Amino acid sequence: MTSLNHPAPTSRTRSRERAVEWPTVLVATAIYAGFAALTWFYHALPWWLIIPAGAYLVAWHGSLQHEAVHGHPTRWRHLNELLVFPSLWLWLPYRVYHDTHIAHHREQRLTDPLDDPESYYVTAEQWRGCGRGMHCLLWIRNTVAGRLLIGPLLAVWGLWRRELPQLLRGQRGAIKAWALHVPACAVVLLWTVAVCDIPLEEFILFFAYPGTALTLLRSFAEHQAATDPQHRSVVVEAAWPMALLYLNNNLHVLHHREPDQPWYSLPSRYRDERHAILIANGDYRFRGYAELIARYLLWPKEPVVHPEAQ
Question: Under a CB-based contact definition with an 8 Å cutoff, are residues 238 and 250 in contact?
């Protein structure tokens, strides 16, 4: 059995022997073809079909970006970035996501509100510095309903709170990331607004916002504060529609253990080592997203203040 602390070298070597990982290319083709069809026939389709389909496609594209961040589906970083260049959700520059997500993978600092850019915790000092209104919003955000309804707004606010000072200071990396983001959004809006005649506000409400919310559902329980770093990442044993949507990133502890592995290799590895994986992560597990929603729809999963960041 493979050690839980070290990836299997044969598997990693096998994943890197391929110049192109065709399952990921197939996913990219499906996303762009589905998005093109849904937007082209937008005015002929009912809203109750457009919203879930649009949300799924936008969130699926976010999962594809996550694969690109980790060096898939080719050996060439710039080609991977080009594959995910269009910003379907509009708000987050790919280069910013790339850098913050790589920083997030520092396992010893995972969930730390000062060192993990993707942490949803705050320090006690930060909590004391917030007013009652922000206390309420952060508490609501720790429920599933809050993560879906106001999570995207808070995500955009947090992004600009972090990025604007860097832009004002003239930081080259930030300027370049946002300069690339402008055409990444423009190509999407040129197609949707100018060609398909979808009003901008409808594209945001029916595609970008619910797609971002669906992505935030994935991250809702991905990590918990725990003394043992191996206990911080979750396993959600989701069925195929959600597992495919998140490109098996629901098997999150396995992704953090072997971040270079392509998405399609994770289910078999999990099946082979399920018992050992769940022992190693302290059985931090959900049977699916339905269980997660049922438990935490209206009640926070965890406190807002990180227990070790007092």
Answer: yes
Kindly state the average pLDDT of the residues 77-89. 98
Which residue pairs from 4-11 have beta carbons closer than 8 angstroms and sit at least 24 positions apart in sequence? 4/230, 4/257, 4/273, 4/276, 4/277, 4/280, 5/257, 7/257, 7/258, 7/260, 7/261, 8/258, 11/258, 11/261, 11/265, 11/269
- Say how far apart CA 142 and CA 34 lie, in whole Å: 32
CB 200 within 8 A of CB 230: no
Q: How many CA atoms lie within 13 A of 137 on its CB side?
A: 15
Question: Is the model's pLDDT at 147 over the cut of 80?
Answer: yes
- 230-257 pLDDT per residue, tens: 999 999 999 999 999 999 999 999 999 9
Is 245:63 a contact under the CB 8 Å cutoff?
yes
Give the integer Cα–Cα distance in Å for 63 and 154. 20
Rounded to 5, what percent of the chain is helix, strand, coil? 65, 5, 35
Beta bridge partner(s), residue 305: 122
- The SS3 of residue 187 is helix
Per-residue pLDDT tens digits for 258-292: 999 999 999 999 999 999 999 999 999 999 999 99
- Contact predicate 163/174, CB 8 Å: yes
* Contacts for 300 with CB less than 8 Å, ≥ 6 apart: 139, 142, 143
Of 256, 70, 306, 92, give the one whose Cα is nearest residue 180: 92
Mean pLDDT of the 132-152 span: 97
Whole-angstrom distance, CA of residue 81 vs CA of residue 147: 28
Would you state the pLDDT for residue 308?
A: 80
